[in-house]
Task: structure prediction
Amino acid sequence: MTYSVAVSGASGYAGGEILRLLAAHPDVEIRTVTAHSNAGQPLVAHQPHLRSLAHLTLQDTTPEVLAGHDIVFLALPHGQSGQYTDALGDTPLVIDAGADHRLTSSAEWDAFYGGSFHEPWTYGVPELLVGGGKQRDALRSATRIAAPGCNASTVSLSLAPGVAAGVIDPGDIVSVLAVGPSGAGKSLKTNLLASEILGSANPYAVGGTHRHIPEIRQALAAARPSTGSGPSTDSGPSTGSGTQDIRISFTPVLVPMSRGILATSTAPIVEGVSDAEIRQAWESAYGDETFVQLLPEGSFPRTADVLGANTALLGLAIDRAANRVTVVTAVDNLVKGTAGAAVQSMNIALGLPETRALSVNGVAP
Result:
């Protein structure tokens, strides 16, 4: 069976990456691409690298244009997806790459985003540990999927095994991330100009203000075997219970690379836990995974190693002097952080091979 696909926000970075991956997918046909201010222009005028899709023209983003497809991807700014998802009730599968359907707590949405709160959808991070299982189980036969925030999924995948196994204390997490500017979208912003970022590293959203913090706390709370709700649910919103004892100091730093996240996350070691038990927690969580890989002891990833790939590479260190575990994780924010996670989740929901149209191989140099 060939599935018809529409991609909104197709002139942006996330939309363009979704299209790049789908262009190589044998089970889908990209029929419609939409935009707002760029509607009426050829797709390749904004995505000149997508030569196989040169026949497509950007249409207006309206419910009428998006309707009538088997699958709709929404790659829109935060707060804009909800107005379309409510009108796509007859679409068999809708995948939102924005934040509108990620959070289960309306209070957290109000605190970090504001505006209309929309019901949470099935969270699109298949490898994430959830209540003793994997989020993959919830994605099977899902019809509404919320793709993750790139920083949020990177930190959550970094630490969920330790939380699930009870070997780290999630009450004192510190994460510092080096991130590329493509994660901020394609809109013209002064702080993202080349003259502003080349030769410089710039922290932003410092002091607990970054919008991905509640998403991380939600995911880590769900990782505990006793958790009854979390990223897996696509039912009504919860109050965010279970996250109160998860505290994270989260500091992203903008660095001059177009793609990539290098997240360094640390958390205290629970008293009495051995080094072997710590490493075993991550090995058992990801030993059978294709796209999330723990590197050998003493090895740590580079962002260059995951460029263009749907992989998250993790390096684990045990710092007994500080009594903390350190996890360094590298992802391509536009692939595993966004579009790759969306396509991987689509494959699972449709019962297709999970790895279809996705690669573990990066691009080098």
In short: The chain is about 25% helix and 20% strand. The CA atoms of residues 304 and 364 lie 7 Å apart.
